[in-house]
Structure formats: structure tokens, C-alpha cells
Amino acid sequence: MLNADALQQLRQLKTNIEDEKAVYPGTIKATNGRFGFVALDDGRDLFLPPEEMQKVLPGDRVKVSETTLDKGKTQAAIDELLETRLNTFVGKYLVKGKGHFVVPETPGINRWIFIPPKHRMNAEDGDYIHCQIIRHPITDAKGQAGILRVLGKSGQAGIERAFTVASFDIGDHWPQAVEDQTGAMDESTIARHAETREDRRDMPYVTIDSPATQDMDDALFAEPNATGWRLSVAIADPTALIEPGSPTETLARERATAIYFPGEPRPMLPDSLSTRLCSLMPEVDRLVLICDLQVNNDGSLGEHSFHQAVIRSQGKLSYDQVSGILEGRDAGDTEGLSDSVLTSLDQLHQSAAALRKWRAEHALLSAGRQEYRLRLNEDRRIRCIEPAIQSEAHRLVEDCMIAANRCVADFLKHQGQGLFINHSGLRNDKLENIRTLLAAHATELANVDPASPEGFRRLMQETEALETEVPVKAILSKQLARAELSFKPAPHQGMGLENYTTFTSPLRKFTDFYVHRLIKHLLWQEPATPLSDAELERLQATQIKARQAANSLEKWLKSDYAKQLGAEPMTGVVSRTVPAGFFVRLDKNGLEGYVSCKTLDGKFSFDPITLRLHGKKEQVFQVEQPVTVTFDNVDEERRQINFKLVKEAVPES
Asked: How many other CB atoms are there within 10 angstroms of residue 535's CB atom?
């Protein structure tokens, strides 16, 4: 037995070792395995073995010590938990003997977590559940969770949406303060505001949208003049009804955007506003913020002005109906429409054609890839997938909206303050690869600077019809940067414009709502609380999360639908290549599935320049290559559709 002096010496030695040990702050990065990494603040990544990974959760801020192993390899050991960022997560309830657990479906948590009796909420084995960590595993690698809500069972109608909303921690209910605020508004609220606004109720504005759309936020009118057209774009004005800093505005900022989940969207504003009092329904007075702009005969833009007005839409028109009118397909399309509306539609068509011609010559048009629409059944699963037809009416509305948004961006730029959408073109980390690609496969463009707006625009225009053994335009399109929100104007290279913003969807996007506030503040001195840099960053992050959530739900529904494809061969094109295989987009319904190199003969190498997969016997797979596949299976964990290749086509050299 050690005496008191010996024990004191051992304690002092331990203290000295701890004091001298080098510790580093960092963030936990999970993997698909049981091990992980710590991303140190100094830029290094340290390996975290399974026994240490069990003590932490993805995203935890920790301090670690570094240990050198045999052959110079290093690994980390958890020294201290600084902060945990994972609060809630989703998973399946599992009963194993007398133990009750949650099997997390959050990436990076590769363990069962115990649920104590008081926190089980009568969940049953196999239920999907929404949980929170109630005991962190830092001390003994044995964390505990508590159930916040039982989401439902596998196969239950709507479980996919409920699971996705919980998984991404997306608010789906209206706080009482918001319901109280919006519930106090009615048509008399509109009438009071209309008294002080410009009266345009006699002008033939119409909305053009899908038949099922209820949150109609834009109406159009056009008339000819000496040098082209006067185009008037009237946008719903929720900022007139929602007071700055009120509960409804605060929640709209938190939500950032409406999320168009298949079958049941998650709106940004309550239905009482978005589909009724602010929606530009026909034959009722509605408050709008109008951009009047001059469209010249060559499609260039002239002077523009903004107006707070009240309008009365003279028609809720569908895209198909307007296309029928413009193409003269069916006399029934014009039934009930006044001559002034029909004249305006004709002038809208002409002005939009001029705008598109200008953009084709001086900017960039979108690629126009075929889109598909999901039709759900009563169980909220996919009944069928239909091609979404982009008609002349769709193009008309798009060109008018872009023109008005360009005017707003120009106005804000000259005012020296605003909110802009910037796009830097190609990703910086891909520029060298792209220069190598051009030198080898587009020599006439090899000297073009892909990083400059002028160079990017030229590349996207001139590679469209380029005849070469690799699809240069498609390869460039796979390596675009993400558009970003900014308080400072900069080029939007993806559109080929000097600067850009949006104000045409204030019912659906808080950035547009905020731009309305800015315009009113600058022109009419109405109050507008500036967004901070941190708030702008949160808005961008929330928008990204919303897109990820919608994509996640679609992926789940599509993977379930794919199980009925059967064994018949299906044609498609290679949509994306990765070192381990390639993805195929089916021609019939747009479903994307994965073909693993493991299912092909021989080994394959990936070329990061051409994005090609090269195999033996001159086998080559590249983007846009036609292929034929059959359905193989669904990876339930990843919710990924897997295909098998039927016909190994080799592209012509």
C-alpha cells in the first residue's frame, strides 16, 4: 500500500503530465464507419479511433491530445468537450430484450442510443421517432436520448414528409402570436391601405400560373409605345400588411423560404396571407409593389420606376391557356377575357420575345433540361411521374420576371445598398482542370479566361454547338459554383448579367420580402431594419437546408416508386460520373439511379479533367452518354436507386 507521500507524488506527476500535454481545439467529423476525425482549428485532420468516437457526436467542439503511433502515424484522444451542436435527431425505435434504443438515421451516429423508461412516450418497436440527446456520451461513451415525438410507422401515409421535417429540424407549425396577428386581418385591412395608394384597378393585369397555384404573387400588363413597350410587373406586397419586427416577419425570416415538398408544401407565410389576402386573386382588390419598365425594340431595358398601388386582376390564367391564346390553338381559351386583356397578352408576348433575344445575344439563357412533375396518391406516395412542359407562356413569365429583377438590382446598386444574388461562375478549385480540358478538347477557346465574367460567358455560349469527342459544355455545367447572397453587387455569371437580385417572390422567399422593405425605405422612407452579416449567413444556410430537405423527401419517394419499375430495359443518359461508378437519368420519367463499377467487367479509372470513366476494351462512360439499364434494387439506408447496365455503349472518338 502506498503511503500519503507516495500518493501525493503520483497525483503531482499526473498533474504535471496534464499541464505539459499539448491539446488542440477542433470539430468532430463523422464517417460512414465507426471511426471519425477531428478537424483541428489549425487546419489539420486527426484520426479518431472507434473507442474515442463513441464519446462524441458529429459536430461536437472538443479539445484533443495527439498521440504518435508506430511508423509515425498519429491519432487523437478526446480531452474535453467544449460544445455540442447536435441537439435533435431522428431514428427508429428498437426493442432488444429489456433494452429500448433509438437507431439514429442521422449521418455520422453509428450506434444505438439508450432511451430511459421515463422518456419513451409509449413508442413501439419500429416506430420512427424524433429525439434529443439528454445525456452526452463524453464521460463513459454511453449517451442517452429522450423522445420528443413519435412520428409514425413505416408505410403510414405522410410518414416520409413528417420524418424529413423532423430530420432537418424544420418548423412546421404557426406560433400563437403569428396566428393572432394574421387572424386580425381581413379585406377591410386591404381597403384601409388602398386609400393611400395609386389606383390601377382598371388596368388589365392578369396572373399566369399553374392551375393549382394559390399563392399568386405576380401579375403582368404591357402596352406598346414609340420605342418598344411599357412592361408593368405587379408583385404582391405582404410588407404592407406585416409590421417590421412583428412575430410574422420574425418567423418569415427564420423560415427563409417556402419549401415545395411534393404534395404538401411548407409555406413561409400563413395561408391567410399567402393564398388569400396577399395572393393576387381575380376580381378582388390587392396591394402590390409595381415595377414599370421600358423594354426597347431590341430587348434592352430603358428607364424604370416603382409604385405602391392597388390592382384588381382581370384573370387567373394558366400557362396552357395562355399558350393556347398565343398560338391560336383553341378559341375557347379566350372565353370570358376582355379585348384589353387579349391585347395586353399579345404585347407581353412581343416584349418577352425581345427580352429573350437580347439575353441570348448579350447574356446567358438557362439550359432548359427536361423537368418532371410528381403526382401523388391518397397515401402521399408517387402515383406517376409526368414531364413538365415548358411552354411559350412559361418563357413569357420568366423573361418578364428577370427583366423586373434586373431593374431592381440596378436601382439598389445605384443607391449604394441592397441585397444581391452573385454567382462567380466556375468553382475556383476546378479552374486548372478546366483550362486543361480546353487545351485538349477546345483549342480555339484555350486562351479564354474561364474565371472572368466575359470568358465564362463566351465559354458557355460557344461550347453549346462545339463538336468534339467530349461534351465540353456539359462538363463545364457540372463544375459551377453556388450562387451566394451578398450586400454588395457583383456579376451573376450563371445568367451572364452584371448584377442581379430578386423581388418577385415575397410570399415565398424572405430575401424578396426584404428587398421590398429596402425599396420602400429608399423611396418612401418606410422603416427597414438592416440585416446583419450573421443574419444574411443564416438566411443562406436556411435556404440551402430547405433545398436539401425537399431533395431528401423527393429521393425517398422516388426510391420507393422505383421498386415497381420491373425488369424491362430502360433508356437514359449518364448524368454524373464519380470514381466508383456513374448515375443514369431515365428518359421516361427522370429518375436517377446508380451503376456501380463493381457490376461491370474489369477495373475503371476516373479522369477528373473529362469526368470520364475508362475501362478495359476501350469502355468509356461520360456525361450525356446514352445507355440502357434495368432496375436492380434500392439501397434503403441511402435511399438510392441502383441500376444494372444492359448495353455498354462506347462513345465515338
From this structure: 13
**Cα dihedral sign, 551-553-556-559:** negative
Residue 245 scores a pLDDT above 70: yes
Q: Residue 553 has what DSSP assignment?
A: H
**HSE, side-chain direction, 13 A CA sphere, residue 395:** 21
Beta partners for 128? 92, 152
State residue 553's pLDDT score: 96
How would you classify residue 458: left for phi > 0, otherwise alpha for psi between -120 and 50, otherwise beta?
A: alpha
**Residue 336: what pLDDT?**
85
In tens, the pLDDT along 534-551 reads: 999 999 999 999 999 999
Check residue 19 and give its pLDDT.
47
List the grid coordinates of 183: 387572424
User: Which residue is it, cell 472518338?
Assistant: 653
pTM (predicted TM-score): 0.91
Exposed / middle / buried, residue 161 (Cβ in 10 Å: 0-12, 13-18, 19+): buried
In terms of residues, how long is the chain? Answer: 653
Residue in 291, 293, 294 with CA at minimum distance from that of residue 307: 291
The amino acid present at 562, given as its one-letter code, is A
Spatial separation of the C-alpha atoms in residues 78 and 275, rounded to whole Å:
52
Cα separation, 314 vs 338, whole angstroms: 8
Which residues have a Cβ under 8 Å from the Cβ of 364 and sit 6 or more positions away? 457, 460, 461, 494, 495, 496
Q: Across residues 380-400, what is the average pLDDT?
A: 94
For 99, the grid coordinates are 433494452
pLDDT at 367 over 80: no
